[in-house]
Amino acid sequence: MRRLFGSVRSRATLGATLVVAVALLAAGAAVLLSLRSNLMDQAGTRAERTARNIAAQLASGQAYNDLDLDDETPIQVVDASGTLVAAGDDLERISGTGTDEVTPRPGADPTTGGDDEDDDDDVSLEPGEIAEEADFTDGSATIDGTPEDYRFAAVQVDAGDRGQFTVTAGGSLDAEQSAVNTATTAMLVGFPLLLGVVAAVTWLVTRRALRPVEGIRREMAEITASEDLSRRVPEPGTHDEVARLARTTNETLSALETSVERQRRFVADASHELRSPIASLRTQLEVAAAHPEFLDLDGAVEDTVRLQHLAADLLLLARLDAGERPTDARVDLAALAEEEAEGRAGVTVSADRPVEVAGSRGQLGRVLANLLNNAGRHARSAITVTVRGEGDRAVVQVADDGDGVAEADRERIFERFVRLDEARSRDDGGAGLGLAIARDVAERHGGTLTVREAPTGGALFELRLPIA
């Protein structure tokens, strides 16, 4: 049972069926109540019409024995003292009226009528007047051996010298009961059939609507099993939520494929970059072990330092890729630029005032250091660092007077392990991670890092960050 209702299609079918069932029950109850009320009103109208007809005969002076009483309708005529003075010949039993008597009292005078006592329930009427309002009750009666339910209407009339009378007549409710029973039977038969149709249609419609979802699930399962991120889920040609789900899934797969490929390249490039200093350091140590007099201590230290820097870069990139968020400390970029430029030959820092941003002082210092290191490798003689505020942005520009960066390479240089001059030595050019780290840190701080041509013809790197 739990598995049966564990699918969206089953729950949708059950929910739609329950909603329709509740709506049908409410509508059916309303129809039955309305039908019963309408038919009872019709029975009451017939009963009142019959009672008024008898009341009109009494008002005109008609004697009890001469009243035109319908033998198929339960009729009672009661005087002011509550005595039954006239009734239908075939009336055998009655209930629900003012009196249960069915036989007129012996000795009732058909010409003079009963006494003139007034009853507390009598309505004040003029001689010959019939009351405008009728009183309605429900009851039953047996006529000629046939019991039935009736709607009774009681009408009062003033017969002049004979006093006031109450005429009660009944309207059969057999038609009402028959109609209500027929409607109930039709509903009991029709509602389950209609619910079955609703459930079947809902099941088929949801199956068709969810068919693309099953295709997406099946393809995702195959992608997971094969670990082939180049595959994509099928996209239906519609413009509904399922189509948007498929497009979003494919976008996620594309981003995941790019991330995994980038990670693979990163691992491969990192392994390649680490191999050179490790191999060089091992060679020097092996030579030193065999021939201590040939130990190149400076070279070993240099390779160790280079290996240390590369490991630090890789660790920082790994933290950035893992989504490490910078701190919210306030950092003065002008002071930080002065600090990083100290001791570097040919570097000039220009800052009009303190420019503060929110972030990690260590990471932002790393950005400036990487930019200055890059400019130092390419500048001929001078490097200029400018720090200023522009609206809600802090701007740091690092310009050199070197050969600059070709326009086609201005985005590629921010990729990891990219060197524009493949022929230069790794010792001079580094591992190609400095600018990649600088841009990643800038983006983590909500900023940007771009490069364009400097006024002196070299490269101008521009860092923009939100002002704290």
- Please provide the ordered H/E string of secondary-structure elements: HEEEEEEHHHEHEEHEEHHEE
- Low-pLDDT residue intervals, each spanning 5 or more residues: 110-120, 422-429
What is the count of DSSP helices, taking H or I runs of 4+ residues?
A: 8
Oligomer: single chain
| Number of β-strand runs | 13
Number of domains: 3
- Secondary structural class: alpha+beta
If you compute it from the alpha carbons, what radius of gyration comes out, rounded to the nearest whole angstrom? Answer: 52 Å
Estimate what percentage of residues fall within beta strands. Answer: 15-25%
Strand order of the largest sheet: 2-1-6-5-4-3
Mean pLDDT, to the nearest integer, reads 84
Account of the 3D structure:
The chain is an alpha+beta fold and 468 residues long. The protein has three domains: 1-227, no CATH class; 241-321, Signal transduction histidine kinase, dimerisation/phosphotransfer (DHp) domain (Helix Hairpins); 330-466, Heat Shock Protein 90. 47% of the residues lie in helices and 18% in strands. The chain is built from eight helices and 13 strands. The strands form three sheets. A six-stranded antiparallel beta sheet has the order 2-1-6-5-4-3. A five-stranded mixed beta sheet has the order 8-10-11-13-12. It has a two-stranded antiparallel sheet with strand order 7-9. A hairpin with a 2-residue loop joins strand 10 and strand 11 (393-400). The radius of gyration is 52 Å and the shape is rod-shaped. The model is unreliable at 110-120 and 422-429 (pLDDT under 50).
